[in-house]
Amino acid sequence: MLTRRNVLRAGATAGVLAAVPGGLVVGSRSGTARAAGSPFTTPLKVPAPLRPVRLVGQDFYRLTTREADVTMLPGTTTRIRSFNGTMSPLIVARRGRPVVIEQINRLDVPFSMHLHGGHTPEGSDGHPRNQVDPGGRRIFRYPNAQDAATLWIHDHTHHGHAENAYRGLAATYIVTDEFEESLPLPKGQYDVTLQMRDADFEENGALVWDLHGFEDRHTILVNGRPRPFFEVAARKYRLRLVNTSNERLFLLQLGEGEEFTHIATDGGLLPAPVPTRMLQLWPGERHEIVVDFARYGIGRKLVLNNAYPYEGESPEVMRFDVVRDADDPSSVPSQLRPVPDFGTSEIEREFTMSFNRQTGEHLINGKPFDIDRVDIRPKLGVTETWKITNADTQFGIPHSMHPHLDTFKILDRNGKPPAAAEAGLKDTITVMAGESARIQLRFTDYEGLYMYHCHLMGHLQMGMMGQMKITR
Ligand code: C2O
Ligand code: CU
Ligand code: CU
User: pTM of the predicted model, to two decimals?
Assistant: First the structure.
């Protein structure tokens, strides 16, 4: 349902983003919005990778989805839906070494595990028709025959994914490879994943769930902690930013507009690093940056801000406190990973995203998702161009497109070549109202039924998804 306030919100997004290239500097505002506690009172929790059972040639994990009581806001307990009882777990995989996960569902709702960004065979992709019912279990096989990148795991049941993600079911999944390891980028404890999202809490710490209540989610969580602080050394860090929110855009800015280096997006390393002062991180997307804290003396505190807070909200996301010295053998090479050539497209398709005010449905090419309908039939290995048009000019709602199975290249936005920050491989692209973008992609290796959809989870739940049957 479109309410007046979310129309305004969505409309305002367009204006803010138009202003981005010039850069914005935000200051703290005194807000009226309900957000939990004062900022920077809880330390960041840095997740350690889950330990697999190592079998010959593969890593085996068991992920049990179940409720758990955790402390997110100081002094309160929050019941979440979790993997193995924790918020924001991390799996680290290696290119070419398969990961096998047994997913056991101990929730009282269905769950369908999807590895977002994974080049995954059909039966392990989390299609809603393969959902695991309460009490059930299923084996997922991830071959990891793909380049190093930061991926994440979330639910894909048709009517439960938004709530399951909101209630805590989001894991980060990193694929590493030899090429990336050979680069002198920051490693080990200096390579940190930051899962960002928003939430709405009751005073007693309980999560408030409302599919359409995104404007009330005023508490920003990083790895499950509200606006945490992170004590860092005066050296370079690689930060992997993952937006697991249902709907929130983070427009990230460090300190008073400090420069940092953008090195990777959804599909992994950019062709070359991009110095920047502002990043847009839309739901489902990943960006990786290198921040050099050696530029700031010990004692310096740098706030990571969201330059696009909701009405009455303060902009802080987290704070970096420079507390010690450290050696720094790392550097960012001037070339990272070239983008493959997909050749000339043989197929062109158009996808128009729109909202039906009467029914509250979000549509692709005029239709809501139908599990019994195949929308498109791509052929393996054939390069396609997709033109994505956001036709929601009346309401100004942003939409995104996320095809499963393979990454894509952005050809242009409104006919203009993409910015350097969008020159790498992507798997999710947001298109503002009245705008269009063209992407080029090629599905490889696996035949089967896969999805493509808007990654604003409320829109996806209200129908903004299609199915593709990929064949030889
Ligand atoms: Cu995050 Cu269908 O995906
Ligand atoms: Cu996905
Ligand atoms: Cu949408």
Answer: 0.94
